[in-house]
């Protein structure tokens, strides 16, 4: 059952009072980690006796997951807590077994390892996270009961075209406060559908920032009695889909004459299409099979394609990059619910590993 809006706002007013109670030297630290399903996030909070100055001040902890054996939460990146404010923290953790082996809930560890091997390329990444806002009843957020609005264009404005802008605005500000490298936002084609961009970030850092941006989104949605769905096809009635395009460059691609290196990387990607699709969603490609139908601005699941300034392809060279002769390219295939580390790792391996041989 959804709460009435009046009840919700009374709760928020009441919460303000409790959050104004002053703390001593303590800091509330919320540990955030990726679930075994490689898709959902979990979190729990503990008190540290003083504000941690950095990641090394935050101790390991055990998960309270349903795994038979206890697992270890190893803090990897610290952010400010935009919900309970300074001196409180959000900390992204990697999940290790009791023998200190990564569980594979995300591909962070293997990704960091590959990144070390290709350090000299100075890779940068940026991702565009699309998501659909739903009410707690599962219906599109804020839309009239008589049916879905499907604008068919992104970046729409007006209260008869977009729903949930407050959530996008609050999420954006919360990410900036937290220290998440959010780059921008826009409304998407399905009325209650939105996008935010993270990056550009150096190397694997993007994965930490994107996962934390997703966590903050889910928490902001709690405040609006809404749910953010990262399903690749959030509305069966329409062909609209949610993806998580990744933008990629190396030092050479960003420098004068970089276009030839972009073309070289795309040529390598064309030879590993199915291998990439198998790690571009958490279900071995099953999600993208529903999404990449060649309709609207998607490409075909079974066929690699690339072009300058077109969006119905696997990989796009933005028009401005082509005109300038250097910059970055966009791989449009990753699904909205992908593990960014799996995607980054695949790109580094295909485009850069062995490229110096
Ligand atoms: P689109 O036109 O595909 O909707 P967006 O403006 O939504 O593009 O996103 C562009 C993305 O490209 C952002 O995530 C940004 O961080 C990223 N980006 C910009 N420059 C670079 C670069 N040199 N290397 C990698 N990523 C980049
Ligand atoms: Mn308990
Ligand atoms: Mn975009
Ligand atoms: Mn988009
Ligand atoms: Mn894009």
TrEMBL record:
Keywords: ATP-binding, Cytoplasm, Ligase, Nucleotide-binding. It comes from the Eukaryota. It is found in: Cytoplasm. One of its GO terms (biological process) is glutamine biosynthetic process. The keyword Nucleus does not apply. Residues 107-357 form the GS catalytic domain. The keyword Ribonucleoprotein does not apply. GO terms for cellular component: cytoplasm. GO terms for molecular function: ATP binding; glutamine synthetase activity. Its EC number is 6.3.1.2. Belongs to the glutamine synthetase family. PANTHER family: GLUTAMINE SYNTHETASE. This is Glutamine synthetase.
